[in-house]
Amino acid sequence: MKVLRSISALRDYRKQLAGSVGLVLTMGFLHEGHLSLVRRSKAECEYTFVSIFVNPTQFGPDEDFGAYPRDTNRDLKLLENTGADAVFLPGAGEMYPPGADTVVVPGKTAHRLEGAARPGHFRGVATVVLKLFNLIQPQRAYFGQKDAQQAAVIRKMVADLDVPVEIAVMPTVREGDGLAMSSRNTYLNPAEREAATVLYRSLKLAEELINGGERDAEIVRQRMTELISAEPLAHIDYVSVADAGSLDELAFVIRPALVSLAVRIGRTRLIDNVTLT
Ligand code: PAF
């Protein structure tokens, strides 16, 4: 497995590859969710690249950029074992040299939900993702459904800016009790880890209600809110029942609907979602 730490090394290596390239973009501290994307890329593309870069521009000033878990040696071992061909591991100065001030400003898809809760977040995501697409030039890029809005923002950017890459979104990988895998789960102490199951339980409740015929989206949001509020360690950021395409909040449930939520468990902010098709 080739480990590339500079843009010049990446460009030299990339030039030599003739076949299709699949890309998995990550911020490291890899888990089974990331590795499932790597496996998918390996099955579908001749070469699989993984990028590891904790992107400072997508964190707000009061967010967890400094505390974000990092373990490059462990990540490289996992990727070697999974069979990635190349890992791009740039430093922040390599990605944002002094004076760099051009950004991608996503449109309406980025305004709600995570975009409303984390101002500037999707501008940072879209900018770094476009840079990584331009550098690595993949034919396909793989994202997790856990970050459903991120996938929607990137799809829209790729369509609007004519970026020649296919976006594949793969199912959320969950722990045995339903908690969506996330590098941020490592922040949780045992009591918080237990409480964190409330996200998936509330999504399951929404699914049951809607599959059982409930069409009033506000009732679904209320029932989810009640369930989460009964968990003392949980504090709701938002609970949403939205149109899966536009992300507009629904009054009446039509499909496909994206049921999503952001909840703070202690000091850890977790997100999750299900799509009802
Ligand atoms: O999903 C993530 O880990 C990040 O937002 C991404 C896509 C790697 C961009 O920094």
UniProtKB/TrEMBL annotation:
Keyword annotations from UniProtKB, A to Z: ATP-binding, Cytoplasm, Ligase, Nucleotide-binding, Pantothenate biosynthesis
Residues at the catalytic site: H34 (proton donor)
Keyword Amino-acid biosynthesis part of the UniProt annotation: no
Binding site for (R)-pantoate: Q58, Q150
Pathway terms, separated by semicolons: Cofactor biosynthesis; (R)-pantothenate biosynthesis; (R)-pantothenate from (R)-pantoate and beta-alanine: step 1/1
UniProt-listed Pfam families: Pantoate_ligase
GO cellular component terms, A-Z: cytosol
Keyword Nucleotide-binding: yes
Binding residues annotated for beta-alanine, in chain numbering: Q58
NCBIfam families: panC (TIGR00018)
Complex formation: Homodimer.
Function: Catalyzes the condensation of pantoate with beta-alanine in an ATP-dependent reaction via a pantoyl-adenylate intermediate.
Note, other: The reaction proceeds by a bi uni uni bi ping pong mechanism.
Protein name, UniProt field: Pantothenate synthetase
Gene: panC
